[in-house]
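As a warm-up, study this chain.
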Amino acid sequence: MRYLVTGGAGYIGSHIVLALLDAGHEVEIIDNLSTGHRKAVPSAARLHEVDLRDGAALASIFGAHQWDGVFHLAALSIVGESMRDPLHYLEHNFTSSLNLIRSCTQHGVRKMVFSSTAALFGGPDRHGAITEDAAIIPGSAYGESKFFIERTLHWADQVHGLRSACLRYFNAAGADPDGRAGEDHKPETHLIPLALDAMLHRRPALQIFGTDYETPDGTCIRDYTHVSDIAAAHICVLDVLDQRSVAYNLGTGTGHSNLDVLKSIARVSGRDVPWHAAERRAGDPSGLVADATSFTRDTGWTPRYAAIDQIIATALAWRARHPDGYGDAARQIDAASVMRR
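Now compare it with the structure written out below.
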């Protein structure tokens, strides 16, 4: 099959590209490299350095081949940033996605797998795992932008027959177990790489945003899902699209608090993470944990790397081999000195 992956040079997108190539598919990538990395693109995949808001460039790409499906991951995705400039987030994410969806309908693409988000459920504090029928109350402009896109895909199916799978994943984490790809955001905003760098003394002590939430230890609880498991889920859902459009919550079903993550890093590395408390951030709910029962039932997917220590170990291995991410793959930290085997 031939697939197009938007945002395929980014963190999750690069792992999806690897999964597709491993399965024997042909892959091309659309990425403007604003946050993605050219070095994250495997030699077997073709990169189009294009912004999704460029309609003429999209027409050229879509007109060159018959595509069996599109995986859409390109987006602005920092919750806190979206609360500082909500109109920019809403305009950018929606316009980009609308152009892409229109290109799919104009060129006969019948399947799209969309990277949605648990930020749809970021309203009032929730207790227990979140199912697909939970009320959608985005707690940020980022989450709202994703909901706009989900609704657009609904109408693209109703009117044009573009079937879509909206995968609402919670917190992607970890790195390719074979070391081919990992997490490299500039600036970095995700807890695990920030905590690892603090543990490795590559940045100041970690800030934990909020220690007064109504959780057992006062810190936010999140469902961390290994990025390779998320990539596998994108492939699993393709068969469901032969019958209907779907929306699924995707996660392990187990929540870990911020302090749980720091304890896991200490277990895996043998070193404590220096940290201090900071004020809560706007848009952060106290807990987000997925109920992925429907997805598992319909696809047979189950996470291979469900334990938090497994996730941390792959993230640390990537960080040790690529301390500056894709910018400097040559310089390494002695992994044995920071990991217990």
